[in-house]
Specification:
DUF5682 family protein; LolB; DUF5682; alpha/beta; elongated
């Protein structure tokens, strides 16, 4: 290792007699990675220089630790502004990662030689938007110079990461644009290929390394890049010039220390610039006066999905899972790949046998031969899988693409890696709760009655407060209880930046979430934001933040005179009262604020609903619905609390009945005032009907009044929209109560022609929200006409809003199942049939039977 590089190696390495060994690579290329390893083994340099931010030198040793599993990324962020950050991702098949590992295994010093991140991040703020924007977005600035290679998200990656600015290049416009987008595309087109990826696979990935030809790939690629840069220059991209000047200075420093026994692993686009002889003074002049920012740097986990363009990150490769396979398998890559695919499909209950694998391999080889390729590539393999294993369908093939071609591999970093205190506390909690971050999206069902699940819920809610969207709540399946929660989890690499950003609020998750909640409460713009925040504080169990939020909530509620704001804030406030049951959180202060807020809504709602235009009326209707739901929930809470404290506070206003009664009074007021828009009046009548507060036939009477000739058609249509519109079950109400449907039908057929055009949009919006089956049933009822409706002549109704007569056939149909469930024998069944017949035929006899045989008559009652 201490001697000079072999002369043969020098001659083959870059076509020169002396100087450092320049290994130009394609980032995230498995062929380049294998070639780098072979070249380093053949050359045995005394030091390895790698393209990357110089501040990461101290982190290189961590790559040798057992806990470091690629894909990983170097993360640099500004200390005072963590959102300004950049990633340098490295996969197992990245040439830079291979060079780092080789240096650590052979005890050779390894250094990063690219422009320090202290300049890169500061420079990004001052550049034009096209450069700075990419650098400062965590999802776009994932490479040393922003987006990796190409300007188009679906194009292949260039050998180098930077994209020249065509406005200052020489040569033809078409060629300049091609180079700016993708230099590989120019080389592929020159070689007669229409697909740059296919050209790269044939030239590099399928080539292999043979004996003494370890430096051949770098010689060829270096010559190609030299020709391109000679023809088109640097593209006038200032960052390229500065970065290359800094790298030349670092290479010279390494040569002074180690002589010419230096290997440089960098993007092939830079090789001609690093080989070019320039004056030291000229390079230093380019670096003079660069802006600076204080930055921190660490390793963070990365994913294959973030390496793929399909996920929005321009890393330069469409198929990281495929590339990882090519790099890791020792031989027969196609056979092993088809075996992986078969295993995946069989795991999804697809019928795939070993015969399918054999036929797929044969077809891939045949396709490669027909297309003139040395070996089957991803295209041939995918075509073979589609034809043989997926039977021509793209549906299972999409699963193969998602799970294998792209993949959900998530890297790991050792605990010794630098991290902000908040990150360390989060990692400790994750281990304690056995909640491991995973790249694959999954659903997590939580039972809040269990201590570990409750802890997981607290953690996820606290992270959401901090803007760390690791999990998103979703609807629980099979249970609607408040003790159930369902989360959809997926860990994205950008969350490491969010954790760093949240570190300004505290050193632990609890402290940071508390401080963030208090700050959000102070900065909240409207009352609804404060009530939502109070709900989130209860979910996250932040006892220190809740008093501050409640004080601000009480102050805002007392000062806010806008009934819309109060109505909008009430539902979240009332929902929060439910969390004390499962989570053991005290909600007395919250209950007092909710009670005061409810009374103010009751008093202010009728005047606030008067004299509104159509848009304001629709918004107020939504507020009425929200208050109705909140009052119902508040009534349940109060009833439960009153039952728990029976005998201590007998006042009726303390239970749920009193507050619901007052709300029904408000709804009656809204339904009767002519100054209130029809959509609100109709909605108030519907809510009263749903709560059983209208006497028999009252809903039909009110609708008949509204739909009378004396009411303007527009107002009547708005009333109908409020009464049966939207997804509130109004369609089923019309299906089951044909009196109401008849009123609507009669009114609609009597609307004058000149007014019909005005009411048509309202009616279309009302009925288009119904499900297709409901619309079809209504159409059939209208087609039959009012004269033949079986129940249209009925004048009474056992239950308001439904049919008037008992359907004995439907009632009797459930009796056999009820007998089976109750375990009744045949004798009981006969007695039940007799009792049921008596109940249908004569109500007085039914009453006598109730006194004589409780079990059978109970069953008959259920049947009715």
């Amino acid at each position: 290792m201490n001697g000079s590089l072999p002369e043969a190696a020098r001659a083959a390495g870059a076509g020169r007699g002396s100087g450092p060994l320049l290994l130009g690579v394609r980032h995230h290329g498995p062929g380049s990675a294998r070639a780098v390893r072979a070249a380093l083994e053949a050359a045995s340099p005394r030091t390895v220089l790698i393209e990357g931010p110089q501040e990461a030198d101290a982190l290189i040793a961590l790559a040798a630790e057992e806990g470091m599993q690629p894909p990983v990324a170097l993360l640099a962020h500004v200390v005072d502004e963590p959102g300004r950050s950049a990633f340098w991702p490295l996969a197992e098949f990245s040439p830079e990662w291979v060079a780092i590992r080789w240096a650590l295994e052979h005890g050779v010093p390894a250094r990063f030689i690219d422009l320090p991140a202290t300049h890169t991040l500061a420079w990004g703020q001052e550049e034009a938007p096209d450069a700075s924007g990419a650098q400062n977005r965590p999802d776009a600035s994932a490479t040393p110079d922003g987006p990796d290679a190409s300007g188009t998200p679906d194009g292949p990656e260039a050998p180098e990461t930077s994209a020249p600015d065509t406005s200052q290049t020489s040569g033809s416009g078409a060629s300049e644009e091609a180079i700016r987008i993708d230099p590989l595309a120019v080389l592929a087109e020159t070689a007669g290929y229409d697909d740059p990826e296919r050209w790269w696979e044939d030239v590099i990935e399928h080539r292999g390394v043979r004996g003494s030809d370890a430096f051949g790939p770098f010689e060829v690629l270096g010559e190609a890049m030299g020709a391109l840069r000679e023809a088109y220059g640097s593209g006038g991209h200032e960052r390229d010039l500065v970065r290359e000047a800094y790298m030349r200075l670092q290479v010279r420093a390494a040569q002074r220390e180690f002589g010419d026994d230096v290997a440089v692993v960098c993007g092939a686009w830079h090789v001609p610039a690093l080989r070019h002889k320039t004056a030291v003074a000229a390079d230093k002049a380019l670096l003079k006066g660069l802006p600076k920012a204080k930055v921190d740097m660490t390793w963070v986990p990365w994913t294959h999905r973030r390496l793929a363009r399909a996920s929005g990150y321009g890393a330069g490769i469409d198929s990281p899972g495929w590339y990882g396979h090519l790099f890791s398998v020792p031989d027969r890559p196609i056979e092993r790949w088809m075996t992986k695919v078969a295993g995946l499909l069989r795991g999804e209950d697809r019928i795939v046998s070993s015969a399918h694998v054999i036929e797929a391999v044969r077809l891939a080889d045949t396709l490669a031969a027909m297309r003139g390729r040395p070996l089957p590539g991803l295209t041939e393999s995918t075509d073979a899988v589609r034809a043989v294993m997926c039977e021509g369908s793209d549906v299972p093939l999409a699963l193969v693409h998602d799970r294998l071609i792209v993949g959900d591999v998530l890297g790991e970093v050792p605990e010794s890696a630098p991290a902000v205190p908040l990150q360390r506390d989060l990692a400790r909690i994750q281990r304690r709760l056995r909640l491991k971050p995973e790249a694959l999206e999954r659903e997590l069902e939580l039972d809040l009655r269990k201590e570990n699940d409750a802890g997981r819920s607290r953690l996820l809610h606290r992270l959401r407060l901090l803007g760390i969207e690791w999990g998103a709540p979703t609807e629980s399946r099979g249970s609607t209880g408040t003790f159930r929660e369902t989360w959809r989890l997926r860990w994205e690499p950008e969350l490491a930046v969010r954790v760093a950003e949240a570190g300004v609020w505290g050193t632990t998750v609890l402290a940071a979430a508390t401080a963030k909640a208090e700050a959000d409460a102070v900065a909240a713009g409207v009352l609804a934001d404060v009530t939502t925040l109070a709900e989130r504080c209860l979910l996250a169990e932040l006892p220190d933040a809740l008093p501050v939020v409640m004080r601000i909530l009480a102050d805002r509620a007392a000062l806010d005179a806008d009934v819309g704001h109060l109505a909008q804030a009430l539902p979240a406030l009332v929902r929060s009262l439910r969390y004390g049951d499962v989570r053991g959180t005290g909600t007395q202060a919250l209950a007092e604020v909710a009670a005061g807020l409810t009374e103010r809504v009751f008093v202010g709602l009728p005047p606030a609903c008067a004299a509104l235009d159509a848009d304001a009326a629709e918004e107020m209707r939504r507020h009425v619905d929200a208050v109705h739901g909140g009052v119902g929930l508040l009534g349940e809470v109060r009833t439960e609390a009153s039952s728990a404290a029976a005998g201590q506070d007998p006042r009726p206003e303390t239970d749920g009945t009193g507050i619901r009664t007052r709300w029904h009074t408000v709804l009656r007021t809204l339904s009767a005032r002519e100054a209130i828009p029809g959509v609100i009046r109709g909605r108030a009548v519907r809510l009263l009907l749903d709560d059983g507060e209208l006497v028999e036939g009252e809903a039909a009477r009110l609708m008949g009044l509204v739909l009378s000739p004396g009411t303007a058609p527009g107002d009547a249509a708005a009333w109908i929209e409020g009464f049966v519109g939207g997804g509130s079950g109004g369609g089923m109400l019309l299906v089951h109560d044909e009196r109401l449907l008849g009123l609507v039908d009669a009114w609609l057929t009597g609307v004058p022609g000149d007014a019909f055009t005005d009411v048509l949009p309202l009616l279309r919006r009302t009925f288009s929200a119904y499900e297709p089956g409901v619309r079809g049933t209504l159409g059939e009822l209208v087609r039959r006409g009012p004269g033949t409706r079986e129940r249209a002549a009925a004048t009474g109704s056992a239950i308001p809003g439904f049919a008037t007569d008992l359907d004995t056939d439907r009632a009797d149909a459930v009796l056999p199942m009820l007998r089976l469930l109750l375990g009744l024998d045949e004798n009981d069944a006969d007695a039940d049939d007799a009792t049921g017949n008596d109940a249908v035929g004569n109500s007085a006899n039914n009453s006598d039977a109730n006194n004589s045989d409780a079990n059978d008559n109970d069953l008959a009652g259920v049947g009715r």
